[in-house]
Amino acid sequence: MKRLIPLMAAALALASPFASAQQPAAYPSQPVRWIVPYVAGGGTDNLARSLAEAMQPSLGQPLIIDNRPGASTNIGVSVLMQAKPDGYTIMQAENAALLFNEHMFAKLPYKPASDFSYIGAIGRFPVALVVHPDFPAKNVAEFARYVKANPEKVSYASPGNGSPHHMAMELFKQKAGLSITHVPYKGAAPAMTDVMGGQVPTMMLDLASGLPIIKAGKVRVLAIALPQRAGALPEVPTFVEAGFSDVNAYAFHGLIGPAGMPPEAVARINNELHKAMKAPKVVELFSKFGFEALPGTPQEFYKLSRAESERWGRIIAAAGVKLD
User: Fold this and answer.
1) What domains lie within the chain, and their CATH numbers?
2) Average pLDDT of 299-307?
3) What is the model's pTM?
4) Distance CA 68, CA 75 (A)
5) Residue 145: what pLDDT?
């Protein structure tokens, strides 16, 4: 027995360092790349940077914003899909990647239902119907009557084909039986500029981009496309209040990763995201832009995304919108 004890001690001494080396480091042990599929400086980018700044101290690692704009967010998704599903590459996804593209592209190289790890919903930017200040309609009912009395003469701007703004107007057109010509732009800024200048009389505008020009009186807002009034514009009625049911549209945001992310990484990012939403600077930003936070589990985020994708699939099919 005495001869066995030194042998066992020696074996343990050799085994312990080896076992320690094989223990996985606590997540995260290195910086996390956060893909934003839009240019720097826009509403999505500002939201991402504010959340990343609030999450970083508790997470213990930098969150590095990587802007990859273009192709209705498909460039950003492509970068995400090529990354290892180790939790060190995530993406801020919105309507295009989560809800719209699978119904607009005949050959989409990914399936939202199976090719993403759903980390957590962030929330939604309300979308509002705005018009140039000189437009004759003072409310949604008058707007609909004017458009019907002037068929094919009214056009509307959007930040681009397949954008939440584009699809919100298509939804309203379907519910109200209107014919309005779509004028797509390359971004919200040039679209807003032409509406303010009167070159195009109207558009659906997200409050993240449009609240300052609404407050300044450079455009007039007629209705909010949410079930309830927006906290940022409590005096503005919803479409439902104006007599147009089911006109519910918004810019929806959440965090995703490549399929197969470790559950502990998903849980950690989800938890840090929830804490960041309560940070004073983030709460102030949400309030400033009328952003509605939607904290919840990854499973709730997945279910909400798939339900909304089905709803928008019907709207997109009726509108005949195709991007390839």
Assistant:
1) 32-123+252-319 (3.40.190.150), 126-224 (3.40.190.10)
2) 97
3) 0.84
4) 6
5) 96
